[in-house]
Amino acid sequence: MELLMEANMATDQFIPAAQYLRMSTEHQQYSTQNQAQGIRQYGESHGFAVTRTYSDPARSGLSLKNRPGLRKLLQDVAGGNTDYKAILVYDVSRWGRFQDTDESAHYEFLCRSAGIPVYYCAESFVNDGSLPSSIMKALKRAMAGEFSRELGEKVLAGKSRLAGLGFRTGGPPGYGFRRLLVSSERTPKQLLQFGERKSILTDRVILVPGPPKEAELVREIFRKFTIEKLSLNAIARELNRLGIPGVNNGQWCHSVVRAMLSHPKYVGCSVFNQTTARLGTPQSARPRAEWVISPGAHQGIVDPQTFAIAQELVDSFHRTNDQILLELRSLLLSKGTLKSSIIDATPGMVSAATLGRRFGGLRQAYALIGYKEFRNNTKTSKTQRSVHRLRRTVFSQILRVFKNQVIAIREGGRGSRQILRFNDGVKISVSICRWVDYYAGSRWMIPVHKVERDYPTLICRCTPDNHSLKDFHLMRRVDSLCKRGFLIREHDPWLTGGKQLCDLSLLRKMVNRLFGLRAVN
After folding, report:
1. How many CA atoms lie within 13 Å of 27's alpha carbon, on the beta-carbon side?
2. How far apart are CA 95 and CA 107, in angstroms?
3. Which of 244, 249, 190 is nearest to 218 (CA)?
4. Residues in Cβ contact with 393 at an 8 Å cutoff, skipping those fewer than 6 apart
5. What is the pLDDT of residue 276?
6. Contact (Cβ atoms closer than 8 angstroms) between residue 472 and residue 501
7. Which of 398, 451, 459, 500 has the most other CB atoms within 10 Å of its CB?
8. What value, to the nearest 5°, has the Cα angle with vertex 192 and ends 186 and 193?
């Protein structure tokens, strides 16, 4: 290769080469501009001319997956898509700080085996494959990896110290909180918006409660979980049904609600080192003994007693089946009977829904503890008959009021529920919403039917005895996020999305008003 360079320099011809630039945030001396200048000086003195550049600005050298520039380089070399005969890199550490030195050697070998050698411009050795250069290169690779490991230890120690003082060390604030920039003496400066970071090294960041609406929603979620005993999925479904945006305007789900209920920051504690993903390893949980917890680091949103109750309930999710059955047997001995309302109302007991998921149903769970359930369906049957009677009454009244304007049809074929269809094609679903005794308070059950969920729906709420109708509400549609049904209260915000009817004779008028349709004779 030296003879080749001498021959090219003698004839004023330069060897075409590609340069690879990578800058992490550790040192300004490694900026891509400084690297390019050093590579250019090396190329001019050794007979190389840079014809292509691959770059990974502000990228860690620990792994290949987050370095599109190096991946593109290797892809071009392996595919023969090259117009150069050498690769110039500032030094061994810019090629990568891989923890496994064989990985760094492997990527260089791929280039060399394709006939394109790699040159390290700022190193004191020549990468010519000789024994001394191979030893130096292996040592440099090990030193580069060890530098990242030592730097990680220093960063962890520094962040742990700051977290112990109650300062925020990074990451999004979470729902209900905002990041506040403060001085080292905790003098407030300004709220940081999404994507903004501090610019002065001595400044610090703490959490403060966000808008009052968000803080109130956080307390409401804790209340639903600890007092109403709603499941995580039920809370998420209700929030989505009400159209309340979640974190970064996203949807609520089981894991988001659980993370909120479990995080100590909602009682004012700063927590650090819960998980780790150091040196490019997969993220894993750290033992609680290694957490850095600073109580009273900022103003909390939830009171400590409510948070403690929530933790007991969340911890119950980790109980084994044997532990759950033992608690269920103890509950049977104390109550003398079992049913879903008793189970759900018992503090610290898993919900009836959880029992169903764990054991394939409540009856299966009862059988495992030797309990034979006695079901009295008399009340349920009476309620069902009353609901069917009220449904027929509503249909009859509407058909009588709008004679020759509307008919009852079955959209889903034989066996499906009837809906109303006006002469101009407008279809309306009718739902009789029964009053149910819920362990956290009585509610109306809003049924959801697959065929009808996208139609305007006439909601007919029953009186508490389910023998007559209380009122009527015309809704644009029943939310499709709810597969079977959901519960609403007396003055539920969901009802504000529709129109209340004082009389069924106003049905078509309200349909026209709700959808901006013209009146039909």
Report:
1. 9
2. 9
3. 244
4. none
5. 76
6. yes
7. 459
8. 165
- Judge whether 93 and 26 are in contact, CB under 8 Å: no
Of 71-85, 103-117, 161-175, the poorest mean pLDDT is in: 161-175
d(CA 376, CA 374): 7
Kind and range of the H or E element at 312?
helix 304-315
**pLDDT at residue 346 tops 80:** no
Distance in angstroms (rounded) separating the CA atoms of residues 207 and 173:
7
DSSP state of 284: E
Q: In this structure, how many other beta carbons lie within 10 angstroms of the beta carbon of residue 378?
A: 8
Rounded Cα distance, 56 and 63, in Å: 12
- List the beta bridge partners of residue 408: 420
Q: What percent of the chain has pLDDT over 90?
A: 23
301 vs 486, residue with greater confidence: 301
Q: What is the DSSP letter of 181?
A: E
Q: Tell me how far apart the terminal alpha carbons of the chain are, to the nearest angstrom.
A: 94
Query: Counting every residue, how long is the chain?
Result: 521
The string of pLDDT tens digits covering residues 204-215 is 898 999 999 999
Average pLDDT of span 147-151: 80
The DSSP line for 57-106 is ET--SS-STT-HHHHHHHHHHHHT--S-SEEEES-HHHH---SSHHHHHH
For residue 430, count other CB atoms closer than 10 A to its CB.
21
CB 189 within 8 A of CB 195: no
Query: What is the Cα–Cα distance from 100 to 280, expressed in whole angstroms?
Result: 12
Locate 335 and state its tokens. Answer: 């109550």
Averaged pLDDT of the chain: 83
Q: Do the strands 188-192 and 204-209 form a parallel or antiparallel pair, or are they unpaired?
A: unpaired
The closest of 137, 130, 50, 75 to 101, measured between CA atoms, is 137
In sequence order, what are the beta bridge partners of 191?
180
Arithmetic mean of pLDDT, 455-472: 91
- Listed in order, strand segments (DSSP E) in 376-423 are 406-410, 418-422
Q: Are 19 and 88 in contact (CB under 8 A)?
A: yes
Distance CA 80, CA 320 (A): 57
For 220-246, the pLDDT digits (tens) are 999 988 888 787 888 888 888 888 888
Task: Please give the backbone phi and psi of residue 174, each rounded to the nearest 5 degrees, phi first.
Answer: 95, 160
Token pair 């403690």: residue: 308
Q: What is the pTM of this model?
A: 0.51
Q: Are 166 and 296 spatial neighbours (Cβ–Cβ below 8 Å)?
A: yes
C-alpha–C-alpha distance, residues 267 and 334, integer Å: 34
The radius of gyration of the chain from alpha carbons, rounded to an integer in Å, stands at 34
Could you report the per-residue pLDDT of 266-315, keeping only the tens digit for each?
999 888 887 777 666 676 777 777 888 888 888 999 999 999 888 887 87
CB 474 within 8 A of CB 511: yes
